[in-house]
Amino acid sequence: MSCDALSCKLAAVLIAALAVGVVDVLPAEAESSQRLTDVLISEITRPPPGWLEFCERQPGDCAGSVTVRRHFALTPDRWRELVRVNKRVNETIRPLTDLEHWGVVERWSYPDDGYGDCEDYVLLKRRILIQAGWPREILLVTVVHDKKGEGHAVLTVTTDTGDYVLDNQNERILPWQKTGYRFVKRQSQSHPSVWVSLGSQRSAIATATSR
Which long-range contacts (CB under 8 A, 24 or more apart) does 81-88 make? Predict the structure, then answer.
């Protein structure tokens, strides 16, 4: 399936995706966070080219149907699991740009050889959490501009107490508004193939190419 074909396929789920909405509780040690989806989503947008190409190679990881928003309780045990996964992946994977790794500017892939850049960290964290039983619709690949204004990818976890960011540039899991990033777009909770614009909103930047 070509990227154009995949992009065209999005039209089939947009109306249904617009009809459904957002998600998700929090342990005492986690900081309070607003729900990014409640505050900032503006419109359906085109997925990053790297995501489209990744979905061509890993269609099973991009498959899904329209889902209804639901609340996800971030219990103390779940919070600790989130911290463990974020820390383990950040410590295990060594940063390497796609150009150094693959000889191309942009390639989203699982860092199974132990090397990767920001979106590869995101994909691995997402896969581990899904395999551990976390719902796909609360684990959202997100494109931001970092504090240097460079493209960057993070994993947003949506909960009933707010949205939290798992980031290879920070061991701490922070509420989205405390990252210092400018949020550009991310996966919709309603469908894994649909992406939504976040209106270039700043927290308290659209391909992700940095480490």
Answer: 81/129, 81/132, 82/129, 82/157, 82/164, 82/166, 82/173, 83/173, 85/125, 85/128, 85/129, 85/132, 85/166, 86/125, 86/166, 86/167, 86/171, 86/173, 87/171
Spans of all domains in the chain: 3-202
CA gap 93, 113 in Å, rounded: 9
Q: How far is CA 134 from CA 11, 75, 100, 145, in A?
A: 27, 12, 33, 27
Separation CA 159–CA 27 (nearest Å): 11
Structure tokens at 203: 């927290």
The CATH fold of domain 3-202: C8orf32 fold (3.10.620)
Dihedral-angle region of residue 180 (phi above 0 means left; psi in -120 to 50 means alpha; beta otherwise): left
CA-wise closest residue to 35 among 190, 176, 166, 141? 176
**Tens digit of each residue's pLDDT (9 = 90 or more) over 70-109:** 668 899 999 999 999 999 999 999 999 999 999 999 999 9
Say what the pTM is: 0.80
